[in-house]
Amino acid sequence: MTDSITRLSTSQSDFDSALASLLAWDDSVDHQVNESVRHILHEVKTRGDAAVLEFTGKFDRLSVASMAELELSEVRLQEALARIPEDQRVALEQAAARVRDYHERQNQASWRYEDEDGTVLGQKVTPLDRAGLYVPGGKAAYPSSVLMNAIPAKVAGVAEVVMVVPTPDGVVNDMVLAAAAIAGVDRVFTIGGAQAVAALAYGTETVPAVDKIVGPGNIYVATAKREVFGVVGIDMIAGPSEILVICDGNTNPDWIAMDLFSQAEHDEQAQSILVSPDGAFLDAVEASIAKLLPTMEREEIIRASLAGRGALIQVADLKEAAQVSNRIAPEHLELSVEDPEAMLGDIRHAGAIFMGRYTAEALGDYCAGPNHVLPTSGTARFSSPLGVYDFQKRSSLIGFSASGADRMGRVASVLARGEGLTAHARSAEYRINE
Amino acid sequence: MTDSITRLSTSQSDFDSALASLLAWDDSVDHQVNESVRHILHEVKTRGDAAVLEFTGKFDRLSVASMAELELSEVRLQEALARIPEDQRVALEQAAARVRDYHERQNQASWRYEDEDGTVLGQKVTPLDRAGLYVPGGKAAYPSSVLMNAIPAKVAGVAEVVMVVPTPDGVVNDMVLAAAAIAGVDRVFTIGGAQAVAALAYGTETVPAVDKIVGPGNIYVATAKREVFGVVGIDMIAGPSEILVICDGNTNPDWIAMDLFSQAEHDEQAQSILVSPDGAFLDAVEASIAKLLPTMEREEIIRASLAGRGALIQVADLKEAAQVSNRIAPEHLELSVEDPEAMLGDIRHAGAIFMGRYTAEALGDYCAGPNHVLPTSGTARFSSPLGVYDFQKRSSLIGFSASGADRMGRVASVLARGEGLTAHARSAEYRINE
Q1: Domain that holds residue A406
Q2: Which of A136, A139, B48, B271 shows a CA-CA span of 20 to 30 A to B367?
Q3: Chain A residue closest to B28 (CA)?
Q4: Which residues of A are known to be catalytic?
Q5: What ipTM goes with this model?
Q6: What pLDDT digit, counting tens, does each position of A385-413 carry?
Q7: Burial of A149 (0-12, 13-18, 19+ CB in 10 A)
């Protein structure tokens, strides 16, 4: 047995408060980070390329004469694609094809209708002109994230996808560049941190200003994205990754232990929770955890994550398991049960739902098709996976016929005068037939 | 002629910079406001109803013994509906019916598909459980905003819509309450400011915590919404309202002047811009402005808005007018031209597009059907009108068959090992057939 994964039961009197403290996550911003980020944003906004070059020299220890040296050509991306091992290239291409296929179904069409007096109403859908994709460099450089962020943008019809990826000390990750080639990224700059976010938001002499910035990053990147929100759109600010597994007790406990590990290995703040009505099964998974942990490459991270934020929770039945899940609104929800379809109606909030014993969450991270950028920290209560809809926007269409303007102008006039907005009223009244 | 509305022409050499300074809008946050809002949020979060009562006493000069006295019953809303003038009640009901009809077409359906090996992929759409609606009190109490914010939530299927509206000195606006009754708002509290936002975000003993807060408010409300973002969802942070009118020169100049006024009367920061290839028409509209201004109830606000932020811009042709419009990405765009459909393809960014001479923007504010909550300050480049989609969220569905898990597990394994995430790899590999 591992000494230290929290055990809870919904039957205990303090369950609600125990669960609340397990889920508590301090995302308060660091004053020092804030000040530093504001300084970087201001410098890049006012001094452009020169400031980006300075910060890149300072933080990534890259000394170059001009921004042009920090842009990677299409040829360079294709070289990376040719250089990576065959099995990785094929796997990236297979994953990209499935991700593209799924996301094409999210494409929204414009629509319109005409009412009885000839007035036209509708909604016009257009892609963003340009999107920026932040890709972390160094250890946590994930080619899968390039696919998951760039493909929805291209499916949406975004004309230009601009990727930034820091290359500290000049270390370039070929698999990341290969993924960019496969996903159809249009331009790549080897810059990172708040300076890259600033360059994408404000534009510089070399880096084009984008309309929205997506992709994960460290605290400096997240803080910079929060600051530039409004100038550009941003995707969500992600918290630590989480998984909630609901199991009826009949899945191999080793499988479940490994599913919990697959979340825990991300970092020490990641959260892995198992919920089951079967107490003996929770014991069995705890034993599997103890048995498998020493065999893991990222053992220390997993151990710290499980000890600090993991839990095994016993519930009365699967109905109650769904209630606990709705309370948590998990990023990833595995329904490792005999009949996942039967549970689906009870699940109100989750980023992605993995149905049945064969659906390891890891499949969704790479190649199932749906996006792996998902709402964390309970935000699945009100937000959605990254999707094609994040790279499209809508414009309302209104075209009144003369008789429609006459009829509805009378309504608008009454309401505008009721609100004391008489220019509104008179503007509508001009279109009323005398 | 009015002495002071800016005239620009795309033919002038400094047009780009002149346009940029016209559009510049300082939305930097006030440090004092920030501190005050953080204090209020903290107090309400930790002390609940007691803090809300204190702040309401202080800011709205309402002294009551308990939060219960600050809740308005359904009976009270129905009384308001019965009390307002007949023409206002009918107009509200007609507007609500059209808004409901339009928004029902935005409803998104869940979907799923099965691939060749029996793997199921899809997207499940669910409404938010509970939405909060902020309605300003006092002078700027707009019943139309109640309809525009509450109806999409109810159409989306939100079970409980909680409205807050401050009633300084106990002054209640019956038309606002009548609109709440018509829109189907579930609960109404007469609280406002940052304390109302905090109550909705964190919940108190009496006010239920919501999942998303929408609706306009003053700087304290906007700052509080920005602060609680992440705990709950929020709609956009609105800047000043804007209209861009493109006219071919053949609309009655009085109509166009009044359309510009209808935006300018909102407040002195509102922005009204007319673009036309016809210089003589710009002169005629300027004359109409001078003639009509003295007849307006809100003359001083309109005059200040037009002088400070308005402009008449001459362009070479309608093609160039569309380019100027795309550069601005206006909240409201009026195409007051002979063939608006012909221009539509050139328009890439706008919150709402009003097509043809009869389609006064004011009609869209009240009763056309589409929402009047629209992206401001150029954010139409990446965001959309408030809609049913803002009150729904998506969960990805993934259900692998045994053979699908075998096939795609191999792909996931290669990619996970390429990223150094071996627990991910082993979790997928457990589902591969030996």
Answers
A1: 400-429
A2: B271
A3: A227
A4: 331-332
A5: 0.94
A6: 999 999 999 999 999 999 999 999 999 99
A7: buried
